[in-house]
C-alpha cells in the first residue's frame, strides 16, 4: 500500500512559503515537490478554502500565506488536504455473523479510534511555527558546526 505524504509535503511547502518575500507559483512548488503544477493547485485549493493561503493569477501571481505560522496547526493542514486515513489497518468482514470477527472488529475499531483521537489532539497542539523553529535550530547547529 502506498503511503499518503501530502501532509508532510504541504507542511514543507507552507514553511518555505513563510520564508519567501514573494508569492510562489504552482510551478515553483511543483519543482520543489517534484510533481505536477496541476497536483499542486488541487492540493493548495484545500488550503485556500481553509483560509491558510491566498492565490493571485497572472504575472507576479502565485501562492502566499495569509495566516501566520503560529495560527496554523498540523490539524488545520490535515483537514485542508481532505483528512486522509492515518491508519492502513483494515477489518476482516468475510463472516459478519462470526462472533470472533465481531469481537475483533469491535476492539480494533475502539482502539484505532482512541489512537486517532490522540493523534488529532497532537495535530491540533503542534503549530507550523514550532516546526519552523525546529528547522531554524537545526540551521543554527549546522552554521555553528561549519563556523567552528
TrEMBL record:
Gene3D superfamilies in alphabetical order: Winged helix-like DNA-binding domain superfamily/Winged helix DNA-binding domain
Pfam family, one: Rrf2
Signal sequence range: none
Name of this protein: Rrf2 family transcriptional regulator
Matching InterPro entries: Tscrpt_reg_Rrf2 (IPR000944), WH-like_DNA-bd_sf (IPR036388), WH_DNA-bd_sf (IPR036390)
Species lineage: Bacteria, Pseudomonadati, Pseudomonadota, Betaproteobacteria, Burkholderiales
Amino acid at each position: 500500500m502506498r503511503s499518503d505524504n501530502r501532509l508532510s509535503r504541504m507542511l514543507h511547502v507552507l514553511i518555505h512559503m513563510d520564508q519567501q518575500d514573494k508569492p510562489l507559483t504552482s510551478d515553483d512548488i511543483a519543482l520543489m515537490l517534484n510533481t505536477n503544477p496541476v497536483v499542486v493547485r488541487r492540493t493548495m485549493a484545500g488550503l485556500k478554502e481553509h483560509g491558510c493561503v491566498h492565490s493571485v493569477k497572472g504575472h507576479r501571481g502565485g501562492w502566499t500565506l495569509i495566516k501566520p505560522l503560529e495560527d496554523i496547526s498540523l490539524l488545520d493542514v490535515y483537514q485542508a488536504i481532505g483528512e486522509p486515513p492515518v491508519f492502513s489497518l483494515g477489518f476482516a468482514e468475510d463472516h459478519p455473523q462470526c462472533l470472533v470477527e465481531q469481537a475483533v472488529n469491535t476492539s480494533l475499531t475502539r482502539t484505532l479510534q482512541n489512537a486517532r483521537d490522540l493523534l488529532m489532539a497532537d495535530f491540533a497542539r503542534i503549530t507550523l511555527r514550532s516546526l519552523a523553529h525546529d528547522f531554524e535550530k537545526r540551521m543554527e547547529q549546522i552554521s555553528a558546526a561549519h563556523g567552528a
